[in-house]
Amino acid sequence: MSITVKKIADHIEKLAPKELAEPWDNVGLMVGDMDKKVSTVYVALDGTSRNVREAVALGADMIITHHPLIFTSINRVTEQDTTGSVIINLIKNDIALYSAHTNFDLADGGMNDILCDKLDIVDTRHYYDSECVDGNGKPLDNIGRVGRLDTPIEMADYVDYVRNVLGCAAISYTGDPSEVITTAAVCSGSGGDLIYCAYNAGADVYITSEIKHHEAQLALELGINLIDAGHFETENIIRGFMKDYLKAEFPELKILKSTAEPYKKR
Questions:
Q1: Residue 33: partners with Cβ closer than 8 Å, 6 or more residues away
Q2: In total, how many domains does the chain have?
Q3: 137 phi, psi to nearest 5 deg
């Protein structure tokens, strides 16, 4: 029986139902035909022109990304526009593109659980709703996980561990390098606005990315360590996971991973 875009999408949505996505998000099929037959899938973090060119060269029928190709509404599709050019290339080469974003972030067994597994964080849980408030009691999004480190470790050593495991081209941290940390919280991608969730949950360290100046200042005031491990690095882990997840259900599929490297380097 042939494999279609819809069958692959349905299998992804068993893990990460579209209903989990944040209201502002755009998930699902971005470009293409649900009834298209698929033999080769290409998995990437982003639907960049570079990744689409690689997918075309490798003969892919479908691309799966984490970040949506179409995030805000567009009024036209032209070659002179970055997104429009990518869409045109996909259509010319009859390649479908599907994105699983915040639904995959929030899903049990999804992005944040994968990140915890990578970083030796065990006994993980979602935040309690009572933990997802800022210092003034304003509700915050409940995205991320908190748990304990499999082995207590000094902060500086854990920063090195995170760098090596995720292959961070750029990494920075805030806090006490000699503090022994035992509990950790994570939010893949950009999670600087959720520092209070990690703090209220009692985490010694919070791993996320794109930390701004005043967010680092807040962490210092609260006394919680921060690791900015990079947006690309904390989410590019979707490639290996999705390859294994799809291969288990569709062993006849050829599944390829993007070879793109982190955008930011230091």
A1: 5, 96
A2: 2
A3: 85, 10
